[in-house]
Amino acid sequence: MNEHTVLALGSIVTAGFTMAIGALGAALGESRIGAAGMDALARQPDEAAAITRNQLVALAMVESTAIFCLVIALVLLFANPYVSGS
Amino acid sequence: MTGASGIFADRVLVWLGPLPITVTMASSVATSALLLGLAAAGARAVLRHPTSRLAAASRLTFGFLRGLVTEAVGHPSPRLEVFAGTLFLFIAGAAVIGQLPGVPAPTGNLGATSALAALVFLAVPVAGVHARGPLGYLRHYFRPNPLLFPLHLVSELSRTLALALRLFGNMMSGHLMVALLVALVGVLVPVPLMALDLFIGLLQAYIFTILASVYVGAAIRVGEGD
Q1: For residues A39-65, average pLDDT
Q2: Which residues of chain B have pLDDT under 50?
Q3: DSSP annotation of B107
Q4: pLDDT-based confidence at residue A12 (cuts at 50, 70, 90)
Q5: Which residue of A has its CA nearest to B209?
Q6: Rounded distance, CA B192 to CA B206, Å?
Q7: Residues 6 or more apart whose Cβ sits within 8 Å of residue B89
Q8: In this complex, do B173 and A68 lie within 8 Å of one another by their Cβ atoms?
Q9: For the segment B29-77, what is each residue's pLDDT rounded down to a tens digit?
Q10: What are the DSSP calls for B162-193, one per residue?
Q11: Which positions ≥6 away from B122 have C-beta within 8 Å?
Q12: Which of B100, B138, B176, B209 is the most exposed place for a label (fewest CB within 10 A)?
């Protein structure tokens, strides 16, 4: 195991953990938004358009944390500045 | 970046002297040209044939954008409508163009999304100074307490970064996912994912526009509440 192997191993494992933990948080947040949106829809079916719109915006904003994690993971895998020749 | 394997890679099509023309530049210009042509045709249709389908589509699009901005800002603001509408149409057009085979969406490049986010970053003080005057705008950095000044600065920078990264990550990840599936399983399997990619692209255009309107709208309304 030379230095390059250790760096590559660390990057791959870290990328996996980054994606796993990042997706976990976003999934929990999105499930809460979905549940709250369904609840609001059941209470006020007339406001369906506004509720759905705001729900989608909130979903996308929460989702962006997972996307940040994805970008970090992809940088670790494909554009890692510390592993030469990646 | 080394080579074309990175996610930030941008293939160079031709060199104009020292200036490289990359795929992203070409597709952005193509998107803009397409949108300009559509807008010109729509404007002509509204003036000459008010009952045609193109005129109806143009009116619907404009009404949608006006409603979006009015809802985000709280009152009609025609200049912001032009700015936000341009952002929305460009990002949505980029998502649609990205569905063409062999053409990556221009917004799947970090440089392009950073440019869009920088536009929003610059539009905030411009709109604020225009609406409230330099002192009136600068005062909001010290509200409600001068201690919050650094936090205001950090929030302006971080939200710009988040705007750029959110759009880039969403568009790039969709493209990457489709490419991965094509490489792994075959031709027809990625079609639902491509539909999802298109939907996410349009949704991101909507979100980018809403957030830009909210940021600029907040700068316009500085000091109205207190």
Answers
A1: 88
A2: 1-5, 226
A3: G
A4: very high
A5: A57
A6: 21
A7: B35, B61
A8: no
A9: 999 999 999 999 999 999 998 888 999 999 999 999 998 888 888 888 8
A10: HHHHHHHHHHHHHHHHHHHHHHHT-SSTTHHH
A11: none
A12: B100
The size of chain B, in residues, is 226
Q: CA A33 from chain center: how many Å?
A: 15
Beta strands B19-22 and B12-16 are antiparallel
Q: Give bridge partners of residue B14 from the DSSP assignment.
A: B21
Contacts for B118-124 with beta carbons within 8 Å, 24 or more apart?
A: B118/B160, B118/B164, B119/B87, B120/B87, B120/B160, B120/B163, B120/B211, B120/B212, B120/B215, B120/B216, B121/B156, B121/B160, B123/B83, B123/B212, B123/B216, B124/B156, B124/B215, B124/B216, B124/B219
- Whether the model clears a pTM of 0.90, i.e. scores above it, the answer is no
Answer whether A79's CB lies under 8 Å from A13's CB: no
Rounded CA-CA distance B30/B106 in Å is: 10
- Full DSSP string of B116-167: HHHHHHHHHHHHHHHHHHHHHHHHGGG-S-GGGHHHHHHHHHHHHHHHHHHH
Q: Is A67–B5 a contact, with Cβ atoms under 8 angstroms apart?
A: no
Q: Is the peptide bond before B144 cis (omega within 30 degrees of 0)?
A: yes
Q: Which of B6, B162, B204 sits opposite A78 (nearest CB)?
A: B6
User: Which candidate from B5, B166, B169 shows the least CB-CB separation from A78?
Assistant: B5
Question: What is each CA distance from A4 to A12, A15, A72, B1, in whole angstroms?
Answer: 12, 16, 20, 18
Chain B positions in Cβ-Cβ contact with residue A68 (cut-off 8 Å): 165-166, 169
Q: What is the DSSP string of B3-56?
A: TT-STT---EEEEETTEEEEHHHHHHHHHHHHHHHHHHHHHHHHHH-TTSHHHH
How many other C-beta atoms lie within 10 A of the C-beta of residue A21? 12
Q: Which residues contact A15 (CB under 8 A, 6 or more apart)?
A: A72, A73, A74, A76, A77
Q: Do B162 and A64 touch (CB under 8 A)?
A: yes
